[in-house]
Amino acid sequence: MPGAKRAGRGMAVCGVIDTVQNPRTGGEVSRALNHVLESPEFARAERLRALLRFIVSHSVETNGARLKAYTIARQVFGRDETFDPSTDAVVRVEVGRLRQRLKSYYQTTGLQDELEIQIPTGSYVATFQERRVPSPERRTQPISGDQTASSAREAPHDSRLRLTVAVLGVLAVGTMAWLFRPAPEHEPVPVEPVDSRPAGSQIERMVAAAPVDHETGVLYGEALHLIFAPTETAKLLAARALLHRVTERAPSFGGGYAGESLTHSLAVIFGSSKSPSHDLRAAVESAELGIEKHAGFGLGHAMLGLALVLEGDAALGLRHCRNAVALQPDNAFSHWALGVSLLLLGRPADGIPPLEEAIRLDPVAPRTPYRNVLGIGLIASGQFERAVDVLERNLRAGGPDGPHMSVIRAAAYSRLGREAAARVELDKLRRVPREFQAERWLRLWLGSGAEYLTMVEELRRLGLPSDEGPQ
Fold it and tell me: How many whole angstroms separate alpha carbon 8 and alpha carbon 256?
């Protein structure tokens, strides 16, 4: 392109691409943008259409000036001034989806487009690349008689010599490139399927089966362990940061996005979210991106289902949870997500079986939350003796504990007339930060009906701190 400043070069499906920092006219970009927006890939994707329009307009109007996630969140997604990209992944998730959708468009519908819109990784600014697409006539043009005659006049010896030198040159360059090739940064290193490895905890099996390199697998495993200390906000945020690194290092691996989704949902469940609606939207979007990366990855569907249930879309949420179990019937977390979703919907009788199946599939991992959630389900269904047995065994085994489980055990003890044991658990609540709201926690799992009211009244009599603090 005459006068254009080349900033890079790559290969496209249809030919050479040259980066154009300043297209000849705004009309070129406008036409390229309209081609994309009118395509089947974007016709019904309103959020991605709005995002692409905003990024392209900003990039053209500011000549490629830096665009911050905060600006996109406010202008495109309606976030308020409290938006924090470290806790709300909406911009990163949606821009990731946009990059994938653009890539798909230019490999199919937009194969013959002459100007390509790209959003390089690590930036929210669009670049515009001229695609020198060979015309159909030129690609199929026959060799003329003059060309044939000219070729025939070449000396056979010279022709063979040039061919030999060319082949040797290619081989030499190829060999040197292979010998001194850099180690890939993001390409996943395949690992053997989980079935070929010794049985371990569900987290160990998930890490072993993840198609990522060793370091990324370590990050993934550490994040999964941190996730299940959700009452500690710092650990939940640390898990989210680690999972963000996983998605950066292995962008095609759905597990990182599913894990990020779970951190947002748990922030809402445990009451540490500053903006539940934004966290739930981020949970949905992260899970959707995980499914987009790997449609058959059950945990993506499980985390999407849980987030949708929390958002209030029970039917669609349960459909995704059940789809997760169908896709990965041997994954305990898929069964756990289904069980949790059913409990949150006030269906403990339906939620108990998948939680029991999660324990059967992952019996060696006391730090996982299956038994605690099963105990909650048993209380919700009136099985107090069995609930106490499950909760106490999990506590003795070193399972997750904290104020959220102290009030649950106190509720079970009080319903069995074990007031002294209930008082011991309630006394623990007086030593925790006031941010924990015990009544809200009970209401989340038990609803606000007569059983809940009776239980809270008993616990108040025994010393349950009020959510509003001392009167």
Answer: 30
**CB neighbourhood size of 214 (10 A):** 9
Compute how many other C-beta atoms are within 10 angstroms of the C-beta atom of residue 383: 17
pTM, 2 dp: 0.63
Residue spans of the domains in the chain: they are 9-131, 200-359
Q: Which helix (H) or strand (E) holds 131?
A: strand 127-131
Around Cβ 164, how many Cβ atoms within 10 Å? 10
Kindly report, residue by residue over 24-54, the tens digit of the pLDDT. 456 788 889 999 999 988 887 888 889 999 9
DSSP states along 239-272 = HHHHHHHHHHH-TT-HHHHHHHHHHHHHHHHTT-
Report residue 40 as tokens. 């089947």
Q: How far apart are CA 209 and CA 203, in angstroms?
A: 10
In angstroms, the CA 32 to CA 29 distance is 5
Where residue 9 falls (left for φ over 0; alpha for ψ -120 to 50; beta otherwise) is beta
If one counts every other C-beta atom within 10 angstroms of the C-beta of residue 212, the result is 25
| Residue 422 and residue 410 in contact, taking contact as beta carbons nearer than 8 Å | yes
- The architecture of the domain spanning 200-359 is Alpha Horseshoe (1.25)
79 with 58: CB under 8 angstroms?
no
